[in-house]
Fold this protein.
Amino acid sequence: MRIVFLGAPGAGKGTQARLIAEKHHIPQISTGDILRAAVREGTPLGVEAKGYMDRGELVPDALMVDLIRDRIGCDDCLKGYILDGFPRTLEQARALDAMLAEVGSPLQVAIDFSVPTEELVRRLSGRRVCRACGASFHLVSAPPSKEGVCDHCGGELYQRPDDNVETVSKRLDVYHAQTAPITAYYREKGLLYPVDGMRGIDEIQADLEQVLLSRK
Ligand code: AP5
């Protein structure tokens, strides 16, 4: 399955992508995770991306399109993948369609998670992420069994630097201005599947399983 996950910061894309990836043995391609790893390693991509990420702005389209072209060309993507955080602009969406058309493997579904703004802010301000495996927790609604320690791998939990209130507000503005219009693009193509992201994680999972089954 070739799947795109859309939705505002904190809508639950990463949480659901991780579950689907494990169950269906396809990679979760999180552009945010790839960029954060590049920043940590100090690669040229990371050096260029850091300022944009710290300010809550989008990294330029050209860099992101090249990154995705390389990544989906890898062997582990032959059976499909979940794009978590890409595309983020209409230009990225069109570039993705063009590269998939070249290889005759179009997208099958674009899942759009919707969650009200107050809840997005609550989720992001309480989110803690594992440095080792990337799993997400929430201090109140999904706390780890032991404070500061990942339930899955024992890694250290930390707060993402862009999860502070000021940067979250900027990321939400950027989402509404540049990313939200993509939903209309996928709706016109008959690929959009809207998901109510206010339900529990398990309920959303079950919903996604049904839609993936129907689009196979
Ligand atoms: P990125 O890492 O992609 O961040 P994002 O889109 O802002 O998304 P998040 O990871 O914050 O949220 P999520 O929807 O995955 O939520 P999660 O599942 O963790 O991007 C970061 C930056 O990189 C961007 O600002 C930009 O600079 C750059 N970038 C990345 N891609 C780019 C691109 N294509 N083009 C240009 N720039 C790009 O859940 C959040 C919290 O809620 C967690 O605590 C979780 O436990 C909890 N939660 C999840 N589901 C539920 C639920 N159902 N009920 C209650 N709590 C829940």
Notes: The pocket of BIS(adenosine)-5'-pentaphosphate is lined by residues 7, 9-15, 31-32, 35, 52-53, 56-59, 64, 85-86, 88, 92, 123-124, 127, 136-138, 141-142, 162, 171, 197, 200-201, 204 (CB under 6 Å). The chain has nine helices and eight strands. The mean pLDDT is 96.
